[in-house]
Write a structure and sequence with these properties.
mainly alpha, 9 helices
């Protein structure tokens, strides 16, 4: 079944779950208005988004759906001002997650878990701008949020947090997949997911 081309129904599924995922990420990301909440949000985003994403994963049977989700997300956040860095993080993560799911099997929870952990790494496309987009990005933060906010953000998001951020995202993705499976257990059994 996974060798077939994507249908209109598949694309509608992609659209619905991409929108839900983006809303969850966007709402939790809004808590970053309080700088001290930024680091823990890297765990909380994929954790809570894991519930709708596991429902999405249970409907994926063809290659390309996660990649399209990543492209849509990357373009959306790029338009929102997150620079080209978000594209470099989100799209490759989604493509890799798509490949993992295809290779390991669509109806196996283990493949969904690993795939979603990799997919969640794409969230780094947002905070990575703090460390790699340059001074002009920080100037924009100061102008829009104020110099005091920028100072606090620099304090709570130091450059050494970059590698730790990937660990937080992967851990949040793992826990999110497990949480999603637990909450959707009946649906998973009905879908024949082992």
């Amino acid at each position: 079944m996974d060798t077939k081309k994507l249908t209109g129904k598949d694309l509608i599924t992609v659209g619905i779950y991409t929108a839900i995922y983006m809303i969850v990420v966007f709402v939790i990301g809004a808590t970053n208005a309080i700088p001290v909440l930024y680091p823990p949000s890297l765990f909380v985003m994929p954790l809570l988004a894991g519930i709708p994403m596991m429902l999405y994963y249970s409907k994926i049977e063809k290659f390309g759906m996660l990649t399209i989700t990543g492209v849509i997300m990357g373009l959306f956040f790029y338009i929102c001002g997150y620079t080209w860095i978000c594209l470099v993080c989100i799209i490759p993560s989604a493509l890799a997650a798509d490949i993992i799911l295809k290779v390991m099997g669509y109806k196996k929870f283990s493949s969904m878990l690993v795939s979603y952990m990799v997919f969640a790494l794409g969230i780094m496309g947002g905070p990575a701008n703090l460390w790699f987009a340059g001074q002009s990005y920080w100037d924009g933060i100061s102008e829009s949020m104020g110099a005091q906010y920028a100072e606090q953000l620099a304090k709570y998001m130091p450059s050494w947090l970059f590698p730790i951020g990937f660990v937080l995202l992967a851990a949040g993705g793992c826990c999110g997949a497990l949480l999603g499976r637990k909450m959707l257990n009946k649906h998973f059994k009905k879908a024949g997911i082992a």
